[in-house]
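Many introductory courses stop at the sequence. We go one step further.
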Amino acid sequence: MKFKLLKFAAPLLAAIALLSGCDTTTLKAVPAELGKASSMEQLRASLARSGTIEFTKHQSADWAINLSGLLNLEHPKAINAGLEDRQEPIEIYLYSLRHPTKGNYFVDSGVSEKLLPDSTETDLSYLVKMGMGTDAIKVNRTTKAISSELAGGVKGVFLTHIHIDHILGVSDLPSGTEVYIGPGDARLNNLTNAAVQGSTDRLLANAGVLREWQFEGSKGEQASVIDIFGDGSVWAIHSPGHTPGTTAYLINSTEGPQLLTGDACHTRWGWAHQVEPGSFSVNPEQSVISLTVLAELVKEFPQIRVHMGHQSLASSM
């Protein structure tokens, strides 16, 4: 009798877990020791100084996905432009940063060798591969290939968020590589995670733990920011909406300031017309606020080069 109870309890418990959702990942999130809370005022002041970071943008892969997820097609501007849902060509990026004394870091992670057509390994479940349409991903350069060219290796990865398309390259990096995320992403609980959590855990396994940025809100500030290296060279800007912890990064590079919006803005049309992301975001109202903050910063400092989450401006490559 006891055996029969356990036999039927297992699928029942699985069904309950599915209906109640689960966290994005089971990996532990700990406070990041790197970086210190600062202010937008200090971030602005840093733009008056010469940049010190060697910055390179890598188009790791090409892909295509539903425009309705990337862009709010119900926005009046999108309606007036006659935009309709379709498969939209996009890219998957990796940004490499070389600090003069701290070494090499990545923003987002590109794609690993496991995404190559002839690979016999995968971190993704069959369900995730089907849902994402990973067969349509065309790999240009793997994370392993990019990191192998960097003297001294890669010390860490600053993620804009932990959606799967932004963590596909972490498994190409050595075990123990430090991975930094925004607050709330790891513990975001929803139904989708019931299908995705296992793949997310495998993709992030080399991190061991996730290091969570410690943003501190200040009265009157447009956004919470962190001075990552304490010298004004690299800034994390909390830009929630797409996910709770979505983080944009401002890089004071040797070729001028670079703003990496992450998925606070996916597309060039969305940036040009200031239309927030679509159905892929968990908080559309907050997405509007975060996009506005980033746009106002660029309007104030037009020398900033903007890099959206999945498409590039003509002047950004």
